[in-house]
């Protein structure tokens, strides 16, 4: 039996043990909380189905990597472009974000805002590097530095409403040249149908027309010379002719009323609601028009056709030259090391195949090609496979300053507010100013 003093000692010892155990539990909990890493992933995807695919990939990753949390952050396209430069210089910078590559990515890499991925991707005899199509890595490499992890490749082409084409008596298979295209636009308009859904509010959707016309008229030689400051630059006759052809399209008033204020989602909605016969858009246009349509169903897949941007008679470019993105995920310099592990996981062959099957991407991961099953996306993949020159979007390739002018000029020319010659000179002036 204990005396009073022994009993008190025992009680005190038990209290000490309990308090110590509680303290240890709190320390362990605090340690676990401190050990958890949050990776901030900024994207601009709007399709809920696609986001659902990503969320499942994230769920799988977090289950396999306890202590790592992926926080998905969304910004609308134009807000993304406007806010990202400021975000990259702030404490709110994302750890990884979507990139179109080109001059914008090159500039971000040069400023030191991004992590050079060369060392990580070349480690262990380039084990990570070898998981991607070599051309995709090369396209995101600048001055020997890899600026982004390859994600997807894509091309811009025309999508059309088969029912509206039939109503207007237009056969899409006969549209081979720019003159054929203009004739089709006239015929569709004469039938009382809006020929094209246009997104002039964000401007870049209109620059697709000018870019493709430059490519068809001048070919790679003319464009490469211009962006390298050689020859007549953006005042090359082929550039001016491209503007003249764009102006000719504009005079037909081919777009829906109010197109100069239309955002890209609204433009997709116009096409998806059957209010325009055509749209010049990305490889995933079929899915995106559905998402942005009034009833969220849009046009049925079997009512949508696709054709390449037509050739220009006498032009130096080929109809097999393609315009589109080589997209990747850039990593900011202060991102936690786990970011690279997540990116390798996100873009591995298995996950890229899953995304391809969902119609999200044309994959760049080796072995994921068989995931492309959607008919329209498959057509885009086939077109890319036969591409004789794949050019990144002009507004991305030329960098933010010149790219912005290209977009502005494209809208100004098609709307009749600027002459093609003045437009070419403005781009040349912006290019020369950007060199200082």
Automatic annotation (TrEMBL):
Subcellular localization: Periplasm
Any one of the GO CC terms: periplasmic space
Keyword annotations from UniProtKB, A to Z: Periplasm, Signal
Pfam families: SBP_bac_1
SUPFAM superfamilies, per the entry: Periplasmic binding protein-like II (SSF53850)
Provenance organism: Rhizobium metallidurans
Signal peptide annotation: 1-35
Entry's family note: Belongs to the bacterial solute-binding protein 1 family.
Descriptive protein name: Raffinose/stachyose/melibiose transport system substrate-binding protein
């Amino acid at each position: 039996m204990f005396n009073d003093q022994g009993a008190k000692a025992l009680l005190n010892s038990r209290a000490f043990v309990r308090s110590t155990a509680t303290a240890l539990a709190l320390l362990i909990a605090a340690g676990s909380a401190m050990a958890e890493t949050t990776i901030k992933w900024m994207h601009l995807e709007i399709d809920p189905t696609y986001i659902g695919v990503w969320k499942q990939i994230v769920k799988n990753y977090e289950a396999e990597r306890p202590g790592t949390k992926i926080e998905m952050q969304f910004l609308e396209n134009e807000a993304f472009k406007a806010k990202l430069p400021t975000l990259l210089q702030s404490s709110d910078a994302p750890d990884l974000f979507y990139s179109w590559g080109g001059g914008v990515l090159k500039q971000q890499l040069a400023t030191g805002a991004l992590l050079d991925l060369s060392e990580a991707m070349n480690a262990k005899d380039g084990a990570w590097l070898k998981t991607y199509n070599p051309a995709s890595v090369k396209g995101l490499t600048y001055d020997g530095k890899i600026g982004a992890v390859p994600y997807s490749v894509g091309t811009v082409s025309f999508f059309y409403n088969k029912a509206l084409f039939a109503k207007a008596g237009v056969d899409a298979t006969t549209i081979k040249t720019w003159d054929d295209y203009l004739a089709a636009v006239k015929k569709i308009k004469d039938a009382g149908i809006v020929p094209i859904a246009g997104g002039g509010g964000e401007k870049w959707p209109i620059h697709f027309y000018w870019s493709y016309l430059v490519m068809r008229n001048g070919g790679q030689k003319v464009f490469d010379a211009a962006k390298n400051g050689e020859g007549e630059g953006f005042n090359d006759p082929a550039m001016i002719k491209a503007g003249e052809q764009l102006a000719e399209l504009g005079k037909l008033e081919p777009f829906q009323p109010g197109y100069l204020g239309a955002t890209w989602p609204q433009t997709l909605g116009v096409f998806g609601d059957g209010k325009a016969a055509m749209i010049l858009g990305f490889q995933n246009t079929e899915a995106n028009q559905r998402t942005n349509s009034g009833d969220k169903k849009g046009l049925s897949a079997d009512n949508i056709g696709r054709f390449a941007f037509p050739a220009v008679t006498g032009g130096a470019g080929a109809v097999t030259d393609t315009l589109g993105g080589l997209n990747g995920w850039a990593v900011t310099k202060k991102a936690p090391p786990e970011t690279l592990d997540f990116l390798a996981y996100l873009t591995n062959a298995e996950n890229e195949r899953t995304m391809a099957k969902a119609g999200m991407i044309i994959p760049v991961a080796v072995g994921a090609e068989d995931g492309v099953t959607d008919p329209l996306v498959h057509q885009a993949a086939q077109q890319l496979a036969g591409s004789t020159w794949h050019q990144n979007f002009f507004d991305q390739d030329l960098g933010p300053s010149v790219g912005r002018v290209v977009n502005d000029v494209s809208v100004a020319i098609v709307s009749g507010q600027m002459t093609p010659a003045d437009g070419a000179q403005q781009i040349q002036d912006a290019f020369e100013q950007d060199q200082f």
